Amino acid sequence: MYPQRGTFVSLIDMKAVELILFIRESVEQEATRLCSSRPRRSGDRMGENMKACIERQRAAISENIDMDVFMRWTTNFMAVFWRQWERKT
Predict the structure, then answer these.
(1) Is residue 77 within 8 Å of residue 50, measured between CB atoms?
(2) pTM of the model
């Protein structure tokens, strides 16, 4: 596949990527802290659901590095946070 005439591709700014990853990690840590500091309801399966997402992420990158599947499970992992947060607020 060849780029069309007039198509430009920008270089990725690795410093910006590092900053974005740092921010994401900080937000995820705070979300984890907030969710874990609240009382758990009986039948709450947040931990189990998160572990399942992580295992599927590992499988996606260990076998054939399927980034589409990995990103799908990353999205599901974050959805577990939001569902838990919505129930507790």
Answers:
(1) yes
(2) 0.50
